[in-house]
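hiii, so i know i said id send this last week but things got crazy w the move. better late than never?? heres the sequnce for the chain we talked about at the cafe, plus the structure i predicted for it. fair warning i was half asleep when i ran it
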Amino acid sequence: MAIQPNPYKLVCPNCGSSKIVAPRSDAFSPKDLIAMSPVCSKCGNKMERKNIDKFI
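okay and structure toks below
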């Protein structure tokens, strides 16, 4: 049985860009892996992971 991981936020320390990642299950598709990429799409810097309590 698949278990849904907790959502988290990726934040770029360089430009401030952010995105929320909310995987649907623990079985990742290629689309999920691209969404979870820790590289900023705006500046190419490594993004930092921040835990969030709830998905709002």
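btw The mean pLDDT is 83. thought thatd interest u
miss u guys!!
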